Amino acid sequence: MFISFEGTEGVGKSTLIKRVHEYFLEKNKEVILTREPGGTALAEKVRNLLLQVDDTEVMCPDTELLLIYAARSQHLSKVILPALRDGKVVLSDRFTDASFAYQVKGRGLSKSKLEILNQTFVERMPDITLWLDAPIEVGMSRARARGQLDRFEKEKLSFFSKVREGYAELHRQQPQRIYKVDATRSEQEVFKQVLEIFESKL
Ligand code: TMP
C-alpha cells in the first residue's frame, strides 16, 4: 500500500501524516514515513538545492523539474519500491501530483514534459492520494508563522492559487485515487475523514 499526501503550504500535512503513521503502527503494520523531494541522503541534498534561497542565480523551471525527478528516481529505487516489495505501507509526503500542481500549473511548464518523465521514471503510482485542501490565505499564514520562508514559500499567492487549481484538476480527473480532504476542519475531523477513506478503499 502506497499512500501520498498532497496540498499547498500550511494545510496540516505533517500533522496528518504523523497521525496516519501512528495508526498503522498501532495496527502492527510495517510502515515507513518518507517525503519528496527527499527521502534518501542524496535526494535530501537535492531537496536542499531546491528549497534554498539563492539570489545570485535564478533556477530555471526546467532545471527545477529535472532536479525533482532526479531526487524522485533515487527515492523510488532506494526507498519506495524496496519497501513496497517487502509488503510495507509507504506514506510519502508528496509525490508526482505535486509536480503537476507546482511545475505544470504553478510554473507553467508543458504537461507533456511531465508525462515523459512520469512514463520514463515512475513505475509505481500511489494507491491512495490524500489531497488536503484549504484556502491559500489560511495555509500561507500558517507557513509564515513557522519562520523563514523557503524558495517555494516565497512565491506569490497567485502562484499557490494555480497550484491549488492543479490539485483540483487532478482530483476531478482521478477521483478513484485522489481524495479531497477539507483541511479547514479540526485535526480530529480530518483524521476521521481519512479513516473513512481507508475503510472504503481497503
Ligand atoms: P514540503 O514543504 O511539503 O516538504 O515540500 C517542499 C516544496 O517542494 C513544496 O513547496 C512543494 C515543492 N515541490 C514541488 O514543487 N514539486 C514536487 O514535485 C514536489 C515533490 C515538491
UniProtKB/TrEMBL annotation:
Position of the signal peptide: none
Enzyme Commission designation: 2.7.4.9
GO cellular component terms, semicolon-separated: cytosol
Domain of life, source organism: Bacteria
Binding site for ATP: 7-14
A GO biological-process term: dTTP biosynthetic process
Keywords: ATP-binding, Kinase, Nucleotide biosynthesis, Nucleotide-binding, Transferase
Molecular function, one GO term: dTMP kinase activity
Nucleotide-binding as UniProt keyword: yes
Similarity field: Belongs to the thymidylate kinase family.
UniProt protein name: Thymidylate kinase
Source organism of this protein record: Acinetobacter nectaris CIP 110549
Gene: tmk
